[in-house]
Design goal:
This protein is mainly alpha-helical and about 80 residues long. It has 2 domains: about 1-30, no CATH class; about 45-84, no CATH class. The protein has helices at about 15-20, 35, 40, 45-60, 65-84; strands at about 1-5, 25-30. It has a two-stranded parallel ribbon.
Amino acid sequence: MIELDGHDSHCYVEFIEKAMAENIILMELPSHTSHWLQPLDRSVFYSLKTSYNEACQEFLNSWPSLSSKFLWIVRTSLGESCDS
């Protein structure tokens, strides 16, 4: 069994036919519910995301000039990639 989140990338005929040929059951979650129904998203990854965001915020608070340099790098990179 494969649990899918309903994204369009999973809705290809070839994918579905291959799953059927391999006797794989495809189960699609209702729209906008995967974050509630997937256990890892509710436990492990939620805690990891929260801890990571707190650590990033703490780091940026201790190096305030770094965030403005980062934004400058992103802005410059995006500008250059759009000009190419």
